[in-house]
Amino acid sequence: MTRIRPAELIRKYYQNNPEAMEILLEHSRKVTRRALQIARRLSVREKLDIQFIAEAAMLHDIGMIMTDVPDLHCFGSAPYLQHGLLGAEILQQEGFPCHARVCERHIGIGLTAEEIIREKLPLPTRDMLPETLEEQIICYADLFFSKGKKNRYKEKSHDKVRNNLKKFGEDKTTVFDHWQQSFEPDAS
């Protein structure tokens, strides 16, 4: 498998927007650190691609540059909800389909085709759920960090994440609880 140099790829797409690049890098580093801590703990009993987790966690939000979110210094034309899909398109074009899957599937705890239809979300009608353990770890780690100006530098507690997910349905909190038990059983 050809390895990515995440910083080079981020610079390629963010070179004309250093403010957005700094927000992305700060967020992605935090997500990567947490994902790697989990992966290293789990690697004692699970076969994991640690290098892939590091790369994909750094690149999971690369598509935000194409969205319209002034708070993130992003002035594209797409709604923020599409940042995962747009990031997947970028990474597909760059020749990294496995990394692209992480981008597409990391929104919340993933989305089902049924949810996309029911909520009339501006996304293709298909399941976009993290399937591999690596995808799930990155998705889980991402839940604890915001890029928004108000909470950019704060890590959310497990309770805060759980409460945020509650408004999207009990099935979301059930998945989160399962992941927490699997990835960080001693956390509260």
List keywords for this structure.
188 residues; mainly alpha; two-stranded antiparallel sheet; 2 strands; 55% helix; globular
Q: Could you give a quick summary of the protein structure above?
A:
This protein has 188 residues and is mostly helical.
- The helix count comes to 9
- Structural class, from helix and strand content? mainly alpha
Please report the distance between the alpha carbons of the first and last residues.
Answer: 37 Å
Shape: globular
Q: Percent of residues in beta strands?
A: under 5%
Q: Please summarize the sheet with the most strands.
A: 2 strands, antiparallel
Which blocks of ≥5 consecutive residues have pLDDT under 50? none
Helix content: 40-55%
The counted number of beta strands is 2
| Sequence of secondary-structure elements | HHHEEHHHHHH
Looking across the biggest beta sheet, what order are the strands in? Answer: 1-2
Backbone CA Rg = 16 Å
Q: Compute the average pLDDT.
A: 94
Which helices and strands, and how do they pair?
Blueprint: H1 6-14, H2 18-42, H3 50-59, E1 68-69, E2 74-75, H4 83-93, H5 97-105, H6 113-118, H7 133-142, H8 158-166, H9 170-183
Antiparallel strand pairs: 1-2
Helix pairs in contact: 1-2, 1-3, 2-3, 2-7, 3-5, 3-7, 4-5, 8-9
